[in-house]
Amino acid sequence: MYDELSALYDLFVDWPSRLGNEMPLLEKLGVGVPGQRIVDVACGTGHHALAWAEKGCTVRAFDASREMVERARMRDRAGLVNWGVAGFEDIPKDGWADALVCLGTSLPHAESEAAHRAALAAFAGALKPGGVLVVHSRNLPRTAGGGEAERFLPPLPRKRDGRNVLFWRFYDVLSPSLLDFHLVILEETPEKWTHRVLTSRLWVVRAEQLVAMAEEAEFRELRVLGGLDGRPYDRVNSPDLVLTAKRT
C-alpha cells in the first residue's frame, strides 16, 4: 500500500498543521529536546525526523516502504538524517537512542500479538536505559466497536497541479481484533475522474494488552493517554491511543 501511496503522501497529509500541533506536544512527552538521539520508526516521508534534525537532534529514521524512504532522502538535501529501510523488528538494537517514536497508527500494521511483542522488544533494544518511548495510534478499539460513525472518516479534498484530488478513508471490521483500512483516491484528469483503492490490514490492540506487552519488553513508567496532548485515555471517547514509557 505505502509504496503506491508514497507519491501522494505529502499531499494527503497536511504537514504544516500536523507538525505545528504534534512537535510541541511530543517535546512535552520528552521527545525532541535539542541534542537528543532519536529513532523514528515508520517515518514515512520523514517530516518529523527532519524537523528534529533541524532542531539539533541526531536522528535515525526507518520505514518498511522503500519508496517512502527514497522520498524522505530526496527532501533531506543536507543529509541531516540517517535513513534506512526497515520493518519494526529490523531496526538496529544497539541501545543508541535517547528516544524512540512510532507515530500515526503505524504499529497496528504488525498484524498479530506476536508481531507487536517482537516490535516492542526491538524498540527496547534500540533505546538506552532510561530512554523515552512514544507509540501513537488512532484509538482502534473504539473504531472496531463504534459502529458506522467510527468506520468512516471525513473526506480530504486536495489540489494537485490545479486539479482536484479526494482522499476517502474507511475501515472494515473483520473481527474484534482485525480491521482492514481502505484509502480511496479519486483524481480529476482532463478526460475523466480516476480512482484507486489501497488497503492495509491492522491489528486492534487494547490499552491493557499494549501495557502488558511493553512491561514484558522491560519498559517502566508506563502511561496510556488519549492523545499526544496528554489527555486521559477512554476507550469509548478518546480519539487516539498513546503509550509513553521509559526503557528499564
What labels would you give this structure?
248 residues; 2 domains; four-stranded antiparallel sheet; 8 helices; globular
Describe this entry's structure for a reader.
By secondary structure, this protein is of the alpha/beta class. It has 2 domains: 183 residues, Vaccinia Virus protein VP39 (Rossmann fold), CATH 3.40.50.150; 59 residues, N-terminal domain of TfIIb, CATH 2.20.25. It is built from 8 helices and 11 strands. It has a 7-stranded mixed beta sheet, with helices on both faces. Helix 4 links the parallel strand 2 and strand 3. The mean pLDDT is 95.
Helix and strand content put the structural class at: alpha/beta
- Sheet having the most strands: 7 strands, mixed
CATH topological fold name of the largest domain: Rossmann fold
Any idea what the CATH architecture of the largest domain is? 3-Layer(aba) Sandwich
- Tally of DSSP β-strands: 11
Strands side by side in the biggest sheet: 3-2-1-4-5-11-10
The CATH homology group name of the largest domain? Vaccinia Virus protein VP39
What is the name of the CATH class of the largest domain?
Alpha Beta
Principal-axes geometry comes out as globular
Mean pLDDT: 95
Topology:
Layout (H helix, E strand, L loop, with lengths): L1 H11 L2 H14 L8 E5 L5 H8 L3 E6 L2 H10 L5 E5 L11 E6 L10 H14 E12 L1 H6 L2 H4 L4 E5 L2 E13 L2 E11 L4 E11 L3 H10 L2 E7 L14 E8 L1
Parallel strand pairs: 1-2, 1-4, 2-3, 4-5
Antiparallel strand pairs: 5-11, 6-7, 7-8, 8-9, 10-11
Helix pairs in contact: 1-4, 5-8
